[in-house]
C-alpha cells in the first residue's frame, strides 16, 4: 500500500487489537492524503475492499472518498476531513 502525501504528516501509527492492514492504513491517513491499494499485492480477496472502507467511515465519521481509476488493478481512498 502506498500513501500519497498531499498534506503534512508522515507518521506511521500502529494499532493494538483485531484489525486488518488495510484498516490500519486508512486510520493512519491525515486529511488530504490518499491511499493506493493494489489488487493482488495489498488486497487478495474476491470482493473489493469497500466494506472495510465503509466500516472505517461509519466508525470514525471521517469523510472518505474511494474509487477505482480507469487503469484498473487498484483502488484509491482519499481522506477529505
Protein described:
The structure is a single chain. The chain has 81 residues and is of the alpha+beta class. It has helices at residues 21-27, 50-60, and strands at 2-4, 34-38, 64-67, 74-79. A four-stranded antiparallel sheet has the order 1-2-4-3, with helices on one face. The longest helix is centred in the C-terminal third of the chain and has 11 residues, at 50-60. The model is unreliable at 7-13 (pLDDT under 50).
List keywords for this structure.
single chain, 81 residues, alpha+beta, 4-stranded antiparallel β-sheet, 2 helices, 22% helix, 22% strand
Summarize, please.
This protein has 81 residues and is α+β, with helices and mostly antiparallel strands.
How many whole angstroms does the radius of gyration measure? 12 Å
Distance from first to last alpha carbon:
21 Å
The helix/strand series, from N terminus to C terminus, equals EHEHEE
Helix content range: 10-25%
Structural class: alpha+beta
The low-confidence parts are: 7-13
Total of helices: 2
Mind summarizing the main beta sheet?
4 strands, antiparallel
- Adjacency order of strands in the biggest sheet: 1-2-4-3
Number of strands: 4
Q: What portion of residues belong to β-strands?
A: 15-25%
Shape: globular
Mean pLDDT: 79
Provide the fold topology.
Blueprint: E1 2-4, H1 21-27, E2 34-38, H2 50-60, E3 64-67, E4 74-79
Antiparallel strand pairs: 1-2, 2-4, 3-4
Amino acid at each position: 500500500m502506498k500513501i500519497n502525501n498531499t498534506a503534512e504528516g508522515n507518521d506511521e501509527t500502529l494499532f493494538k487489537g483485531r484489525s486488518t492492514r488495510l484498516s490500519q492504513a486508512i486510520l493512519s491517513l491525515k486529511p488530504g492524503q490518499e491511499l493506493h491499494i493494489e489488487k493482488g499485492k495489498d488486497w487478495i480477496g474476491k470482493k473489493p475492499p469497500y466494506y472495510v472502507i465503509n466500516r472505517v467511515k461509519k466508525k470514525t465519521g471521517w469523510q472518505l472518498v474511494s474509487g477505482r481509476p480507469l487503469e484498473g488493478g487498484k483502488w484509491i481512498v482519499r481522506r477529505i476531513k
